[in-house]
Design brief:
This protein is mainly β. The protein has helices at about 70-80, 120-125, 145-150; strands spanning about 1-15, 25-35, 40-45, 50-55, 60-70, 85-95, 100-105, 115-120, 135.
Length: about 160
């Protein structure tokens, strides 16, 4: 079991950058079992692993607990997430000292592309200079959290 404080910033992109089009891709299915205030419980399934994650808090700094699931557990819990799911393809790239995860959404969220950057501490988060291909910051915009995207769908102002 991993227990951590997650420090992360999120940004809207126009599309997957051309330099990343052929980068290794990881398909992700993510469904939410419970959404209660600032706490969420989700199941994330990739070709390599399945994880149950509990997150608390909003914005750039949140508490996160992860538990590994076996295939039977993941399949059983996935069935309980109907109506609260996202599917996306993740690519990774380095930007300076930071690793950037670029997520391209599918299904009802087709066309949405975001970048997430995790940091070791809040000072590193504050000093991060987003590259020009990051359109705008979404870190404090709850409508673009995965939990909101899964339950509420695409925000109306994506192109703003």
């Amino acid at each position: 079991m991993a227990s951590d404080i997650e420090i992360e910033r999120k940004f809207l992109l126009r599309s997957v950058p051309a330099t990343m089009r052929y980068a290794r891709r990881e398909p992700i299915r993510q469904g939410y079992l419970a959404l209660d205030g600032d706490t969420e419980v989700r199941v994330r399934i990739t070709p390599k692993a399945a994880v149950l994650t509990i997150k608390a808090g909003r914005g750039a700094v949140r508490t996160e607990e992860e538990l590994t699931l076996d295939k039977r557990q993941a399949d059983a819990l996935w069935e309980l997430t109907e109506g609260r799911r996202v599917q996306k393809t993740r690519r990774r790239v380095r930007v300076g000292d930071a690793e950037v995860e670029v997520d391209e959404y599918g299904g009802a969220l087709d066309g949405l592309v975001v970048a997430e950057v995790e940091f070791a501490d809040e000072a590193a988060s504050r000093s991060f200079e987003p590259p020009a291909w990051f359109v705008r910051e979404l870190t404090d915009d709850a409508r673009y959290s995965n939990r909101s995207l899964a339950s509420d769908g695409m925000p109306d102002d994506r192109d703003a």
